[in-house]
Write a structure and sequence with these properties.
Layout lengths: L1 H33 L12 H16 L10 E7 L11 E11 L10 E7 L24 H19 L8 E7 L7 H8 L8 E7 L10 E5 L7 H8 L6 E4 L9 H5 L4 E6 L18 H19 L12
Parallel strand pairs: 3-4, 3-5, 5-8, 6-7
Antiparallel strand pairs: 1-2, 2-4, 6-8
Helix pairs in contact: 1-3, 1-7, 3-7
Length: 319
């Protein structure tokens, strides 16, 4: 009997590791494409940016997301100085990629949890861009910023699609463009919501989650913007393989800020800064894919927990 129990634990361990490896491989696949030279840094208005949007749309469709207004794209204009990143005019078109899964509870499905990550980056960099090396004209692949966040988003979507019974609340998946130019995609979304603003209860955002450190720290700001959020995030850290660093406030500076400013609870996740930030050196060879899988699983658990929350989700303002 004892031998059977030991074997059972050993077998379950093998299954668990296989699942982690599978998610790590999926994370790697997505990051490799999105941060490839072929996409030339995904600058707004470029073919590379559009190709990235098309790639994300393909998986939104594959994993069963529904469209708003018969379209996965939410197009908008971005103004850039002529000549930056080979731009031919000061106005270019780009798009958010948006879809949703309907909740399983007849009442709560009218409430929405949003999970997102921006897919744009700085293209070839240069003067006028946000590059830290303005004198260098080279592709800024943004493997961490933010191909990693989109990779996590798609990994999480894949896991949600496998659920036989979907979470109680509906979930909006969104990949923003124009984040680097000043959170433009998320601001546009907030100003052109496909549902009532009051129906959106919590927003989870992933920006730079591909460089998990040796201490296995996943940082998050804004966990205290919804009831018992700090406690939830700490509890989810147990047996996750991660050491969550949880801030009730300190909302941060990525797309979730657009939601927080609109009085919507918002949490931003990241694995920390690094010297390659906004440089051509932010490449795939520095991405921690096993870490990316751990982070994706943690945020997936947070998403499902919040979407199934028994307590009423209300906005809590933080300093």
């Amino acid at each position: 009997m004892k031998l059977n129990i030991v074997f059972c634990f050993f077998f379950m361990s093998i299954i668990s590791n296989a699942q982690k490896n599978t998610m790590a491989e999926t994370f790697y696949k997505h990051d490799k494409y999105l941060s490839s030279d072929k996409l030339e840094g995904r600058f707004v208005g470029t073919k590379g940016n559009n190709d990235a949007a098309s790639y994300i749309k393909k998986y939104f469709k594959k994993y069963g997301l529904k469209e708003f207004n018969n379209n996965y794209y939410q197009s908008f204009k971005v103004f850039v100085k002529e000549g930056i990143n080979k731009a031919k005019s000061d106005s270019v078109s780009t798009q958010n990629v948006v879809g949703y899964i309907e909740g399983s509870d007849e009442k709560l499905k009218n409430e929405f949890i949003v999970i997102g990550a921006h897919y744009d980056h700085w293209g070839w960099g240069g003067s006028g861009s946000g590059s830290k090396k303005k004198d260098t004209i080279a592709i800024h692949n943004g493997a961490d910023d933010n191909a990693s966040g989109v990779s996590a988003l798609l990994c999480i979507l894949q896991e949600v699609s496998k659920l036989k019974i979907k979470p109680k609340r509906s979930i909006i998946f969104i990949s923003f463009s124009g984040e680097e130019e000043g959170l433009l995609g998320s601001k546009y979304f907030i100003n052109h919501l496909p549902v009532k603003k009051e129906a959106i209860k919590v927003m989870l955002n992933m920006d730079m989650v591909g460089r998990l450190n040796a201490e296995k720290q996943i940082y998050m700001g804004g966990a205290g913007t919804f009831p018992n959020g700090v406690e939830l995030m700490k509890k989810l850290g147990q047996n996750s393989g991660l050491n969550p660093v949880v801030f009730a406030g300190d909302v941060g500076g990525s797309d979730h800020v657009s939601f927080y400013k609109a009085s919507i609870s918002a949490v931003g996740f990241h694995t920390g800064g690094h010297p390659q930030y906004h440089t051509p050196e932010d490449d795939i060879d520095l991405i921690n894919f096993e870490g990316g899988a751990l982070v994706s699983k943690y945020i997936y658990n947070a998403l499902v927990s919040i979407a199934n929350y028994d307590e009423e989700l209300v906005f809590i303002k933080r300093d």
